[in-house]
């Protein structure tokens, strides 16, 4: 007797479709990208995303209902943070697929990817072992606001646009590992190029702060 095809589980696919539908809006992906850097108030998220407060709030509610973000109230402000689960990995997979399908649409991204391929990256696992032996300097090249919300333990913050004039703040003989918002953030790539051009030893973290945090690793914040 020929085995029959196992029955499908339509409800599971309905749930997947709902998540895909929720993520199927550019504004929501932009909001998630900002939230991945750290907990923020809805007013600040609207400002960073270039949206009206009402529009940002509407998209955030969709994300909250899907469990992609969580909220808490702090006085008069509603603060948003990433939801539970491998959301950072989900977003990274979306970026991978978009690159595969539409790399030619974003020439500057493609160019940056080629540059990253020429620059040796450091995995999270390797970085952890290097941190234990104090043999590396961590350089966070994100904006100061994002650094304050959360960063790798012991990292130095020099925003990318300030790097050239603040090179003197970095130890000349240490190996520097630069990181930013994630594997597709070009800030760390440009930082490593600038550091090497000035005679410093530098590599980039293959992942970024959201992936570090998603691994459940320790982060530090800057007191306000």
Question: Brief overview, please?
Answer:
Residues 8-102 form the HTH arsR-type domain. The chain has 224 residues and is an alpha/beta fold.
If you had to describe this structure to a student in words, what would you say it looks like?
By secondary structure, the chain is α/β, with parallel strands linked by helices. It folds into 2 domains: 10-82, Winged helix-like DNA-binding domain superfamily/Winged helix DNA-binding domain (Arc Repressor Mutant, subunit A); 101-214, Oxidized Rhodanese, domain 1. 47% of the residues lie in helices and 14% in strands. The chain has 10 helices and 8 strands. Residues 132-221 form the Rhodanese domain. It comes from Undibacterium umbellatum.
* Text of the CATH class of the largest domain: Alpha Beta
Number of helices: 10
Give the count of structural domains.
2
- Multimeric state: single chain
Work out the helicity level: 40-55%
* DSSP, total strands: 8
Average pLDDT score: 85
Write down the Rg.
20 Å
How would you sum up the global shape? globular
**Approximately how much beta-strand content do the residues carry?**
5-15%
Please tell me the CATH architecture of the largest domain by its name: 3-Layer(aba) Sandwich
Biggest sheet, strands in spatial order? Answer: 4-8-7-5-6
CATH topology of the largest domain: Oxidized Rhodanese, domain 1
The H/E string reads HHEHHEEHHEHEHEEHEH
- Give the helix/strand class: alpha/beta
Pfam family, one: HTH_20
Domain Rhodanese: 132-221
Domain HTH arsR-type: 8-102
Protein name: Metalloregulator ArsR/SmtB family transcription factor
């Amino acid at each position: 007797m020929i085995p029959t095809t196992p029955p499908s589980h339509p409800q599971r696919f309905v749930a997947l479709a709902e998540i895909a539908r929720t993520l199927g809006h550019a504004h929501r992906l932009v909001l998630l990208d900002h939230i991945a850097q750290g907990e923020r108030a809805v007013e600040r998220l609207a400002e960073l995303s270039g949206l009206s407060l009402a529009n940002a709030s509407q998209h955030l509610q969709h994300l909250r209902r899907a469990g992609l973000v969580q909220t808490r109230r702090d006085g008069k402000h509603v603060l948003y943070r990433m939801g539970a689960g491998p959301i950072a990995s989900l977003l990274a997979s979306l970026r991978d697929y978009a690159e595969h399908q539409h790399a030619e649409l974003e020439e500057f991204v493609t160019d940056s990817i080629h540059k990253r391929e020429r620059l040796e990256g450091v995995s999270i696992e390797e970085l952890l072992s290097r941190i234990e032996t104090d043999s590396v300097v961590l350089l966070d090249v994100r904006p100061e606001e994002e650094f304050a919300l959360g960063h790798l333990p012991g990292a130095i913050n020099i925003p990318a646009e300030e790097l050239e004039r603040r090179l003197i703040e970095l130890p000349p003989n240490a190996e520097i590992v630069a990181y930013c918002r994630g594997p597709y953030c070009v800030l760390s790539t440009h930082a490593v190029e600038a550091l090497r051009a000035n005679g410093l030893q530098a590599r980039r973290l293959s992942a970024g702060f959201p992936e570090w945090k998603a691994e459940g690793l320790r982060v530090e914040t800057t007191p306000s």
